[in-house]
User: Fold this.
Amino acid sequence: MRRRDSSVAKDNRRDAIIRLITEKEIETQEDLSKYLNEENFFATQATLSRDLKELGVFKRTNQNGKNVYTYKAYGNEPVPAKYSKILREVVNMAVPAGNIVVVKTVSGMANAAAAAIDALSWDGFIGSIAGDDTIFIVFSSNDDAAKFCGNVLSIEN
Assistant:
């Protein structure tokens, strides 16, 4: 009979997950599992998937075009439902390039997504311009641009 994770072991494993994805560019659950095993944390694929979901871990595209795990501690107000629905359904990717963010959307939906982005209070937001499937957004700093990418890609209901 298997025992469930003790809450201390679970918390320690989750702390290790956050630390690892913050320190390393990890592309797959298999890679993450390997790093966890090296630190004597052992978890099934199902447990690891559940941990990632419950921690709010998501993937972002790095500067080399690879999708890697990332983590953003939540502290902001939830995005209003009408905007979160638009952003969740039409935004395909958001990539920072300095203080500018390029957002790719479903074809024909960039204006709707830009309107939702403009209506929300993003730290350092200056303005946006939208085409058919691409939005360019200017932020006051590189950090604000990067933060926006993590937030917009992790919007939930």
Confidence is low (pLDDT under 50) at residues 74-78. The first helix runs from residue 7 to 23. The two ends are 37 Å apart (CA to CA). The chain is about 45% helix and 20% strand.
